[in-house]
Specification:
Blueprint lengths: L11 E3 L1 H9 L13 E4 L3 E5 L28 E7 L1 E10 H5 L5 H27 L10 E3 L14 H17 L5 E3 L2 H7 L3 H7 L9 H8 L3 E3 L4 E3 L9 E3 L5 E4 L13 E16 L4 E14 L11 E5 L4
Parallel strand pairs: 2-12, 6-14, 7-8
Antiparallel strand pairs: 1-12, 3-4, 5-13, 7-11, 9-10, 11-14, 12-13
Helix pairs in contact: 1-3
């Protein structure tokens, strides 16, 4: 394939410089890989290993006589579920007139790349949020809905620290035997928690009296807190704008491994084929270039029980009013 030329005729070129802009584009307010680490896959679709319980079976036949073979144990079971890395792509046109009226020819290309990349990543964020805030994806013991005086916006009666501890113990006892190490606390919830008397009371003699996400993390015993504050418009094209916070008022606690791997237990993975990239091509009749961002992925909850419900997370619905 010939190198891309803005005076070419319809040739498509994967643009390395624009791909770097796309990959490095700030994901401010997004959860992304903090909750669903990416696992690189070679095929668009395939099966993957699920988190099994084989490692906890005490093998009482591990004695080996001299000269004898060691007893062999079965490996982890292969899930009947599969991933399919669907292609997600958006494109935008950059007109020659726009380039001619800017100081740097790169600015329109950069702006276009950031726009389509942000919308591709926003689509992934919406899919992720819908997946992990659906109570039906959790066993009954691993989800709760707060209401009235139990919601954390009720500073007199609610007990958020206890609610977090209940969730941690539930995840530990319901098959994972590890506590969640990551919590997604949306901006609307975190802004309420920072002024909650339960947290202020616990730090008033040892801190400045200013509650931060780091202090909340230490008090609830969850090392990593992610505070998504991204907003989005839920209206369709042509409809009146309907703006709001994407992540709403639900809190998710999850076990997220330090490194991603198909045989490593986790709350969820993004099965991603290849890298996110940008390509572009010339449309001479319209005197413009078209810039497209593409990402192939599938979001999966992978630590599941026999009913295909996650055992590696805990969901708190309607944490605040």
């Amino acid at each position: 394939m010939p190198a891309y030329s803005s005076t070419g005729s319809g040739n498509v070129h994967i643009d390395v410089a624009l791909s770097q802009i796309s990959v490095a584009y700030p994901q401010g307010g997004f959860v992304g890989e903090n909750l669903f680490p990416s696992v690189g896959v070679k095929r668009i679709s395939d099966k993957y290993y699920v988190f099994g319980r084989e490692a906890w079976q005490a093998d009482l036949i591990d004695l080996r006589a001299p000269g004898a073979e060691a007893s062999e144990i079965p490996g982890m079971a292969l899930s009947l579920d599969s991933y399919y890395a669907q292609e997600h792509a958006l494109q935008i046109g950059v007109n020659d007139e726009e380039r001619e009226n800017t100081d740097s020819p790169m600015s329109p290309d950069r702006d276009a790349t950031e726009l389509v990349s942000s919308k591709v990543l926003l689509g992934r964020e919406v899919a992720m949020k819908n997946l992990v805030t659906t109570a039906a994806n959790y066993p009954a013991a691993l989800t709760t809905t707060l209401s009235g005086t139990t919601q954390w916006s009720d500073y007199v009666n609610s007990d958020p620290i206890s609610d977090f501890k209940v969730g941690k113990r539930a995840v530990h006892a319901n098959g994972l035997y590890m506590e969640p190490n990551t919590a997604v606390i949306p901006y609307q919830v975190m802004s309420i928690l920072e002024d909650h008397p339960d947290f202020i009371e616990r730090i008033k003699y040892s801190q400045r009296g200013l509650v931060t996400s780091e202090i909340i993390a230490s008090l609830i015993g969850i090392p990593k807190i992610v505070v998504p504050g991204v907003g989005y418009d839920s209206a369709h094209v042509g409809q009146a704008a309907s703006l709001g916070y994407l992540w709403g008022k639900d809190v998710v606690m999850a076990w997220v491994p330090d490194r991603a791997g198909p045989k490593i237990p986790a709350f969820g993975y993004e099965f991603k084929q290849g890298e996110q990239y940008v390509d572009r091509w010339r449309e001479d009749p319209r005197k413009r270039d078209v810039i497209r961002t593409t990402r192939r992925y599938d979001l999966k909850l992978v630590a599941l029980d026999s009913n295909s419900k996650t055992i590696a997370g805990y969901l708190i619905k309607n944490a605040v009013a």
